[in-house]
Design a protein that fits this description.
Helix content: under 10%
Shape: elongated
Largest sheet: 4 strands, antiparallel
Mean pLDDT: 93
Structural class: mainly beta
Distance between the termini: 13 Å
Low-confidence stretches: none
Strand content: over 45%
Number of strands: 7
Order of helices and strands: EEEEEEE
Number of helices: 0
């Protein structure tokens, strides 16, 4: 974040079928979890594809570091080259 202000951050993670995932996603600002941004996911190899979304409202100072973090190591592979597996949209309020 390059400008102090109030923001909304929304993340989306696309988990394809055939992927085993057991993790918790969180948004962190400066290494601290943003309240309300946690989403826990348990997805087996037999489950179909799913989309996980989380968000948070927060105040940030100049040059604050915003990160999407998982509690466990995660490897996702898209079915096609160029598949978008994760996105993070940050909006100034």
């Amino acid at each position: 974040i390059l400008q102090a202000g109030v923001y909304q951050a929304t993340y989306t993670v696309n988990i394809p079928s055939g992927a085993a995932v057991d993790t918790t996603f969180t948004l962190q600002l400066g290494g601290k979890v943003l309240p309300g941004s946690q989403v826990s996911v348990v997805h087996t190899n037999d489950d179909g594809s799913v989309t996980v979304t989380g968000q948070a409202l927060f105040s940030a100072g100049y040059t604050s570091l915003l990160s999407l973090v998982t509690s466990n190591a995660l490897t996702l592979t898209g079915a096609n080259a160029g598949d978008v597996l994760a996105s993070l949209i940050v909006t100034t309020l």
